[in-house]
Amino acid sequence: HIDASSGWEVKRAMDAGIPPSKISLSSQELPENFAELLEMGVSINACSLSQLEKIGAAKPGSEVGLRINPGLGSGGTQRTNVGGPGSSFGIWHELMNEILDIVGKNDLKVVRIHTHIGSGSDPAVWQKVSHMSINLVRPFPLVTSLKEPVKKDFEAFYEETGRKLKLEIEPGTFLVANACSLLTSVQDIVRTLGSEGRTFVKLDAGMTELLRPSLYGAQHPIIILPNDESVSRGPPLKYVVVGHCCESGDILTPSPGEPDVIGERYLDEARIGDICVIEGCGAYVSGMSAKNYNSFPEAPEILLDNEDMHVIRKRQSVEQIYQNEFPLPNGC
What we know:
This protein has helices at residues 7-15, 34-40, 49-58, 96-105, 123-137, 151-161, 173-176, 212-216, 318-321, and strands at residues 2-4, 23-26, 43-46, 63-69, 91-92, 109-114, 145-147, 166-167, 181-191, 199-203, 222-225, 237-242, 254-255, 258-262, 265-267, 275-279, 301-305, 308-313. Helix 3 (49-58) runs parallel beside helix 4 (96-105). The strands form 4 sheets. Strands 1, 2, 3, 4, 5, 6, 7 and 8 form an 8-stranded parallel beta sheet that branches. It is of the alpha/beta class. Strand 2 (23-26), helix 2 and strand 3 (43-46) form a beta-alpha-beta unit. Helices cover 23% and strands 25% of the residues.
């Protein structure tokens, strides 16, 4: 199954051979061809009242899902929190009367409730939101799917109502993030002096490949691999690891959850030419990068299949960066 966040992700999935019936779309921007996607069998969750109205006007009587903001979120930082009053994701849970009015007016059949609250890791919040989500199902007797990972509330709901809900679990980042590493080279090491002086390890990659530290203050494991193992090294040292962009925010070691604050890591002694491995770079790391910033070409991607390596995305050429650009006419 594909959980898409844009109409373009839906197209990429279908072009890759995924059947439309196996694709769910929850998007901040409802694609222009949403009616066509519904006809093809794509499951669409309305993420706002206006989206629900558009679906009802274009496809009255159709099946639809609802993404609800349950009033509570859980994110590692506020930037990964997609629930609560500070989030624009989903329809606010107290707007049920407006939802029911639009559904009834257009004879829509609500078959799914989607509550995604963020990339946090607080089981107590999950449990509370799961209970809240169960209550959101009650006005919609056709709902058979609730995307929320707590089992006992489903069992209690069945005992009370006789309705069996299908539990859909999204392991997502938990599995996929750790399936990839970013291989970089130490291309420079610079120092500043004084009481606040630091030692900076400069890589030949950065926010053009991995934006999460700059955006979220995300913490990725970092390993230094010596280019010459025959040369003895000293003890681990404190480093600030930075990227290659002309951007002060291109930092790979921010303070946890604070992208604006420089952090330091104890790493094995680094030297120019060493390999620096940044782990946990699967999931959406490649797709959300600041691609082509400073005209750095997109990095290649290699799939390791046991001992066999396969190029699944070749390195971009600089010409490919500007191939869609056009010169101005003479005289402009």
